[in-house]
Specification:
The chain has 202 residues and is mostly helical. The protein contains 9 helices and no strands. Helix 1 packs antiparallel against helix 2.
């Protein structure tokens, strides 16, 4: 009910109340007990209806003010910002892509890749910013400590070379080979390679 309707409704209730009071007076003057009771019941009903209408107006005014308050507007803006952030994932970090291209084992050698993710989590927990050179230097350092035999020479290992040697990839059945860029994107988003590979495969 809008304010105009409420005002009209209250006027009608007021007029009906005055009419009922007049009927009550006549009934009392005539000593008509049944008419007195009926008039009193009508007055009680009209009083309830009038209070209900006033309560409805007050409630709507409170809700309108609450929706216009700075706190409510700020909350709505925050919710919209969250939805936009979820719909538009951040672009991949160029440094992450470069690092993935330089380290061809990333995304191909499962033990090394899983170790890289573990080192990444440890570095972040230690407060190292993943967007700095310090982060990548420390990541390379720890990878070499964990897999010294993989970094003994600058030439690709036999395993990697065999993967690149002619013909289609013949990795385990059902596996998907991610490009360095896809691996970098997976790493930047914090999505496990296995899950990202499922998405690419689909």
């Amino acid at each position: 009910m809008d304010r105009g309707y409420i005002a009209e409704y209250e006027q009608r209730v007021k007029a009906e109340t005055e009419d009922t009071k007049a009927k009550l007076k006549v009934a009392m003057d005539n000593g008509d007990a049944d008419a007195v009771i009926a008039a009193q019941q009508d007055l009680a009903r009209l009083a309830v209806e009038s209070e209900r209408a006033k309560a409805t107006v007050a409630q709507r005014e409170r809700m309108a003010k609450a929706a216009q308050s700075p706190a409510a507007q700020q909350y709505q803006q925050q919710q919209m910002a969250k939805q936009q952030a979820q719909q538009a994932p951040p672009p991949p970090d160029p440094q992450a892509e470069d690092w993935a291209e330089k380290n061809e084992w990333f995304g191909k050698d499962e033990p090394m890749t899983l170790t890289a993710f573990s080192i990444h989590r440890n570095l972040v927990e230690e407060g190292v910013d993943p967007s700095t050179k310090i982060y990548y230097n420390e990541l390379d350092k720890r990878m070499k400590n964990n897999f010294p035999h993989k970094f003994q020479s600058s030439t690709p290992t036999q395993t990697v070379a065999s993967v690149n040697r002619g013909g289609p990839i013949t990795a385990r059945k059902g596996t998907v080979r991610l490009t360095p860029s896809q691996v970098a994107i997976s790493k930047k988003l914090g999505v496990p390679l296995s899950e990202y590979a499922k998405y690419v495969k689909e």
